[in-house]
Specification:
Radius of gyration: 23 Å
Helix content: 40-55%
Structural class: alpha+beta
Order of helices and strands: EEEEEHHEHHH
Oligomer: single chain
Strand content: 15-25%
Length: 162
């Protein structure tokens, strides 16, 4: 890291801290040449490969705007959407990849969206899973019903709880 004051190519790290959002690291540095201090912020870049092959930086705002369309008319708040976008970004970053296909982002939105609102999930899934007919919708709805019934049976009722 070059010193911004004297352009010395060698600086040393005095202190490192994770930012409040946990997505970047703030480093306090000192130049051994001029002894001045400065701060840097380091983030891991995450790029999205669009369908046309163009690369662009990942944006939570784009996740929110895409999901907002599926949630139109549903009881979903802006806070819910922000939390969903954060969960999606965290799951993508956990893969360790620096580039991810836009379709993979769409597919990674599905599980948290399903927990948030099943109707919005079906709307969104119809695009990202390529529903082509009513049969695709019926199959997805049947799968949701089966999984919901299984999760209800797995939960202890008030009478069964210790």
């Amino acid at each position: 890291m070059h010193c911004p004051f004297c352009r010395n190519p060698d600086t040393r790290v005095v202190d490192s801290r994770v930012s409040d959002d946990g997505l970047s690291i703030r480093r306090r540095r000192q130049c051994p040449n001029c002894n001045r201090r400065f701060s840097t912020t380091e983030t891991a870049s995450l790029n999205v490969i669009k369908r046309n092959g163009v690369l662009e930086p990942f944006s939570r705002d784009k996740v929110v705007s895409g999901v907002r369309k599926a949630c139109q008319g549903r009881p979903v708040t802006d806070t819910d959407l922000a939390v969903l976008a954060q969960r999606v970004e965290e799951s993508i970053r956990a893969t360790g990849a620096s580039q991810i296909d836009a379709n993979e982002i769409g597919l990674s939105i599905l599980p948290p969206l399903r927990e948030l609102d099943e109707v919005a999930y079906l709307r969104f899934a119809s695009v990202y899973q390529g529903f082509e007919s009513l049969d695709d919708f019926e199959e997805a709805i049947t799968l949701l019903r089966v999984e919901n019934a299984a999760s209800r049976e797995a939960r202890p009722t008030d009478e069964q709880a210790p």
